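Justification of resources, computational component.

The compute hours requested in this renewal are based largely on the per-chain cost of generating structure records like the one below. Each record pairs the submitted sequence with a full structure-token output. That output is archived, and it is also reused by downstream analysis tasks.
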Amino acid sequence: MGELGIGLIGTGFMGRAHALAFRNVSAAFQLPFTLRLAALADADPLRAQACASAWGFARAHAQWQHLIDDPQVDLIAITTPNHLHYPMAMAALAAGKPVYCEKPLAVSLEQASALHAAAQAAGVVTRVGYNYQHNPIIERARELIQSGRLGQIISFQGEFSEDFMADPASPWSWRCEAAHAGGALADLGSHLLGMARYLLGDIEAVCADLQTVHRQRPATSGSQEQRAIMVDDVTHALLRFSSGARGTFSSSWLKHGYKNHLSFEISGTQGTLSFDQERLNELRLCQMGQPGFQRLLAGPDLPGYAAFSPAPGHQLGYNELKTLEVHELIMALAGQGQLGTDFAQALEVERLATAIRLAAREQRWVNLSEVQGQFAAG
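The structure output for this chain reads:
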């Protein structure tokens, strides 16, 4: 069995999630490679060294380019703010190394298109961190849809809401920068757009409205200085799927009471299926002739679940989903799987987000065929 050297860029929440996943995947699954935590990079050298030691990485780098050039690193994992994804991923691809990048892939459709082209030219495996799609119960939902249990699909109603920016006194951050692909659409909605495509296929046209509710925020926590906000707090869209189904989409980071409300309800001629990420181990299903919804619990009969628990109802969590995502990445690197969102699929999510912004700006329906990379994020 060969070794695979992991290089991780970034030490925030997602950096830690990646580190946990790379450590846990070897315990949960039999892998085709021995994973080696080769190097970690952060712009703060002291933090880089502290996190490398705590998380089990062999060495630390204060410059991300040094990590990409490190001969001990075979795979580049990128967990930095969005505007850094493009230069880092491009450098990794130029070095001929596979890339595992957090979402959104880039801050504009032009950047996403260039990354996709570079990945094709490099001929390496790429993945983007849409980890919610790796939930075993989501795969069950997809099977129910594709098997015809719901009949012909009529509608998709999707929402991803949180409340971490609901307080107008919440300070400005890089997520409030249009140039950094900030806003509720990019930060939350991209997950929902990816989920809609994964479950129901291509979306051919959109109509949308974006709203900025809090147009200023404190520059820092407690500061009297105010910074202008130019990104969306709330986005609503109508969707037309290539299959003929219709849909609604909303994303908000202002909705009080919600912490991770990535949810959908899919209705067909024979039934309705619903899911909420805040109850990520269950589906609700109602089929024609039944008096109401039945609850379907995740269990070891679903692929991936048994790697963590032998019994139904014992619950998987966020970090298990990240571990499942990393497992699919490792199997793809070994040529043994195609699951997961690669740069080509992530590009289509970026195309959808760009179409939604254009539709809101011009107040009209936009066909996806119109969107070829000419409109920047924001």
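The chain has two domains: 2-131, 134-312+342-362. Residues 145 and 180 are 36 Å apart (CA to CA).
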